[in-house]
Design goal:
single chain; mainly alpha; Cytochrome Bc1 Complex, Chain D, domain 2; two-stranded antiparallel ribbon; 5 helices; 5% strand; globular; signal
Length: 142
């Protein structure tokens, strides 16, 4: 009797993990954290096409913190992905990488109705997004 109760418990646990875990641990369930952009030039309402903070030390500091608060859960500490999401150290540098980065962080990614990355436009400011991009360029690898 005890074996069958343990077996039943294991089956129930497996079913729970198999059905509930994807909803709990899937991409897109991260609650964005506010980013204090004090010290950065205000960019206004028009979205910049290229990173206005490139190599700015204040932006790098803010971007490092913002990445850890909002991105590291999926993209890994130091932007070193564990395979859940793309390794952002390999984004192209300069304007080409800026375009790819801003498109994805602003609009997110949904495929077949599944959220792979939530959109951050309307949640993070343009200044916070560009600060993250500025920091990412400091950990870039070829």
């Amino acid at each position: 009797m005890k074996k069958s109760v343990r077996y039943l418990g294991a089956v129930v646990a497996a079913l729970f993990i198999g059905t509930a875990a994807p909803q709990v641990f899937a991409h897109g369930d991260v609650v964005p954290q506010a980013v204090d952009t004090t010290g950065l030039k205000n960019l206004g309402a028009d979205w910049q096409a290229a990173n206005p903070y490139r190599k700015d030390k204040t932006a790098i500091r803010i971007g490092d913190s913002a990445f850890n608060q909002n991105c590291a859960r999926c993209h890994g500490l130091g932007a070193i992905s564990g395979g859940i999401a793309p390794d952002l150290r390999y984004l192209p540098l300069g304007d080409e990488g800026d375009e790819v980065f801003m498109q994805r962080i602003r609009k997110g990614a949904v495929r077949d109705g599944r959220v792979y990355m939530p959109p951050f436009e309307g949640t993070l400011s343009q200044e916070a997004m560009w600060a993250i991009r500025t920091w990412l360029e400091t950990v870039h690898e070829d």
